[in-house]
Design goal:
Number of helices: 4
Strand content: under 5%
Distance between the termini: 74 Å
Low-confidence stretches: none
Radius of gyration: 20 Å
Structural class: mainly alpha
Number of strands: 0
Length: 121
């Protein structure tokens, strides 16, 4: 009689635990900030459950595509990158220094300027 093989059980994919506490929300935030954080929470949790490499790789693909192409398609790809950078800047705004804020604004502005240039040339 042949030895029996252990059966494989289907396991749920492992998910990363969420940070403890209320770290998704800024204490004593303005109503506009609270709305932004509430609307962003679902997407942040979704991104947190993905493998850590997925979001950066997707943004790099859009960035390379935008820089490699010309015309409206290039501009659209770069606008996606600028929107993602602007969203990340907005949700991290209260926790970053003034110089960090300035760099984020400059990064978004540069990507949008390149998008306009690519759309027109």
């Amino acid at each position: 009689m042949a030895p029996s093989r252990p059966t494989r059980q289907r396991t749920r994919p492992r998910t990363r635990p969420l940070p403890r506490g209320t770290s998704l929300y800024t204490p004593n935030a303005t109503p506009g900030r609270q709305t932004t954080e509430r609307r962003s929470a679902r997407l942040l949790i979704f991104l947190h459950q993905l493998p850590v490499w997925v979001a950066p790789v997707v943004l790099v693909v859009f960035l390379v595509a935008g820089l490699a192409m010309h015309g409206p398609a290039a501009a659209a790809a770069l606008v996606v990158v600028a929107a993602a950078l602007a969203w990340l800047a907005a949700i991290s705004w209260p926790r970053i220094s003034a110089s960090g804020r300035g760099l984020r604004v400059v990064a978004v502005a540069v990507v949008l300027a390149v998008a306009v240039y690519k759309a027109l040339h």
